[in-house]
Amino acid sequence: MTKVLIVAEHFEGKLNAATAKCVSAAQALQPDSIDIVVLGEDPASAAAEAARITGVTKVLTVANVANSPPIAQVLAPQVSQLASGYSHVFGPSTTFGKDLMPCVAALLGVSQVSDLMAVVDSHTFKRPIYAGNAIVTVEASAADVVVATVRTASWPEAARDGSATVEAVKVETALPTHTRFVGLTAGKSDRPDLQSARRVVSGGRGVGSKENFKIIFDFADRLGAAVGASRAAVDAGYCANEMQVGQTGKIISPELYVAIGISGAIQHLTGIKDAGTIVAINKDAEAPIFEIADIGLVGDLFKLLPELEAAL
Amino acid sequence: MKILVGYKRVVDYNVRVQVRPDGSGVVTDGVKQSPNPFDEIALEEALRLRDKGVATEVVVVSIAPSDAQAHLRNALAMGANRAIHIVSDQPVQPLTVARTLLKLIEQEQPDLVILGKQAIDDDANQTGQMLATLWGRPQATFASKIDINGDKATVVREVDAGLETLEVELPAVVTTDLRLNEPRFIKLPDIMKAKSKPLQTITFADVAAEGGETLKITHYAPPPKRSRGVMVKDAAELVAALKQKGLL
């Protein structure tokens, strides 16, 4: 029996889109059932959203004030206890899932399949290593539960026309109190979310300064796009770290990706390989970004962006 | 306060890794090896805590093949007080690393363990979380700021939504993100000094925990390639090309 348990990621009552991507990955296993568990202080509204994801059999909720905000070492013993009876436990390869799932794996005595990008069969998977410069086929032992994080850029969101049952469950296990949540400083933005946006405009070192980055924001707003940045731009202090796209930042798969003043370091290209169409604008015709761009334009971004805005 | 730092040797981040034609692995012969960048950040942070008088001893540990002595000397030259080389000629998976480090922790009794958030070879991002779990201690992953206040650490974490701050009781495991610090350059006199610092060698079998590897890599393949597209001359052509693709 292939039975999958997916750990939902949610924030302020809303389900993160990554959860529906985990469902797509789970469906590739052709499982007997897919359950989602929502751990939170008041998981009801996120659970209702999860119940609508197509292919979901059941949504489990674990209501506990200790589960909000989520702390990996608090959630892990609950998830590992719920994992009994399941053949696979999946979470998203977001900072939430990357923090939590290895703890679950350790409690279950297995190494984790990180960044699952393709399913070969129920215990054989593909995942990237070396910043995506190699793809390995990994076989998990059929005797063990499979714990994996799902590489969100590799999977579409599952549709939402389902109506799974929601079931509140109790988990009796001692929870650690050694960790205290102090606060979250979120980069407030009215723009689309970088991870799930259909269009993304990113700026690199070529933008030149924090002040100049305004031209990237303006252009993104004109396109209704989310704004990203290369590691070089983040390191130079042009923009916030959570905007970083690449191996060590966010790995994204928008329909349209526009790289502006980005040379195309390997670690950046890793983050955008799954984009539908890549447009590169750079003054250096030899920049490596042009080797993978679908449409390239050589020129001065400060001249070209206003022209583009006018032509849109 | 004693800090234990994980220090893995990996293929240098500037190397464009090639998959062997028979799919049995990646080419590592004659390829430059360097400390994992996130581990250098971990070591730098430990050294800064010692410089500030918060820590008294910084111990680095590496599970690495027998030829990795220079790698550990490098950590000593950077400033670690001593180094432990756990010799394993086989690659080890994160759970095995965590189990092995836990055995070492039982001997060393560190107050803080700092590891890189991931190694840039297997990109697993698991060891720190697994170690904290098996140890029954707090974890603060993806750290961009660490403050120690008595028996607690306040850690700022880089998460998808922004910056999260956690307060954890010590001992704890912290994993580093890129912006935590910029590692120092090693000076020549430090390389000389490192030669006389203690470097302990342990056979992997002596600290190996029970339980084997649970995953098997059966094949390596190069990634699917994106091919070079078209070049356009100006803004108007770009807009036309995007419209043609139905993207505008």
List the helices and strands and how they pair.
The complex is a heterodimer of chains A (312) and B (248).
Chain A: E1 3-7, E2 10-11, E3 14-15, H1 18-27, E4 33-40, H2 44-51, E5 58-63, H3 72-82, E6 88-92, H4 95-108, E7 113-116, E8 118-121, E9 124-129, E10 134-140, E11 146-150, E12 165-168, E13 179-186, E14 199-203, H5 214-223, E15 226-229, H6 231-235, E16 256-260, H7 266-270, E17 277-282, H8 289-292, E18 295-298, H9 301-311
Helix pairs in contact in A: 3-4, 5-9
Chain B: E1 2-6, E2 9-11, E3 33-35, H1 37-51, E4 57-64, H2 69-78, E5 82-87, H3 94-108, E6 112-116, H4 127-135, E7 139-149, E8 152-159, E9 162-169, E10 172-176, H5 188-194, E11 199-203, H6 204-207, E12 215-221, E13 230-232, H7 235-244
Parallel strand pairs in B: 1-4, 1-6, 4-5, 5-11, 6-10, 7-10
Antiparallel strand pairs in B: 2-3, 7-8, 8-9
Helix pairs in contact in B: 2-5, 3-4
Low-confidence stretches of chain A: none
Radius of gyration of chain A: 21 Å
Measure the end-to-end span of chain A: 53 Å
Mean pLDDT of chain A: 95
Tell me the strand order in the biggest sheet of chain A.
Answer: 7-11-6-1-4-5-12
Specify the structural class of chain A.
alpha/beta
Reported for the largest beta sheet of chain A, the result is: 7 strands, parallel
Instruction: Please report the number of helical segments of chain A.
Output: 9
- Fraction of residues in β-strands of chain A: 25-35%
Distance between the termini of chain B: 59 Å
Which two chains have the most extensive interface, and how many residues on each? Answer: A-B, 87 and 83 residues
The structural class of chain B is: alpha/beta
What's the multimeric state?
Answer: heterodimer
Helicity range of the residues of chain B? 25-40%
